[in-house]
Design goal:
Distance between the termini: 13 Å
Oligomer: single chain
Strand order of the largest sheet: 1-4-2-3
Helix content: 25-40%
Number of strands: 6
């Protein structure tokens, strides 16, 4: 299980506000609310991240890819939804996702290594997506999610994550 799951004394997933991100090896950020969990690796250490995002420090770039791939897999959102409170349309993700049995990253685990490879490939693929500035950001996210998950890599990633979280 991840060491920063809810209820653990060493909680490391915290809202982005006054805490410095500059000393972290690698950082994933994800939305606090919305219909789908959406995670990205933060590369610009000078970025301003507001309280609408949580951040999760990673020990390495590989661990950041691992976390990001798992959080972006559609099955993760599906399994986390029953744990979330919701309003009119949006779900409140907050730290509920860490109640799922997400395994701690292990560099020697072949499945974890495969998730890292798939996540990195899908990240590159998503970066090639042509963004239509006229579309709402939620529609753009949906199109990117559909685009990446229609690939063999997307299907394999979702299956690996589903098996991990069962």
């Amino acid at each position: 299980m991840y060491p920063f799951r809810v209820g653990k004394p060493k909680l490391a997933v915290i809202p982005c506000d006054k805490t410095s991100l500059l000393d972290q090896e690698a950082i994933d950020i994800y939305n606090t609310s919305g219909m789908h969990i959406c995670c990205a690796k933060l590369r610009d250490k000078k970025a301003i991240v507001n309280s609408d995002l949580y951040w999760a420090p990673a020990q390495s770039e590989a661990e950041a890819d691992f976390i990001s791939a798992i959080l972006n897999a559609p099955v993760t959102t599906e399994l986390a939804r029953p744990l979330m409170s919701y309003g009119k349309d949006e779900r409140h993700i907050h730290k509920h996702v860490w109640e799922l049995p997400i395994e701690q990253f292990d560099h020697s685990n072949d499945i974890h290594k495969r998730i890292v490879v798939l996540g990195a490939k899908l990240e590159k693929l998503a970066s090639t997506f042509k963004i239509d500035e006229a579309l709402h950001f939620a529609a753009t996210r949906r199109h990117i999610r559909d685009f990446t998950m229609s690939t063999p890599e997307g299907v394999e990633l979702n299956d690996l994550v589903a098996n991990m979280l069962e």
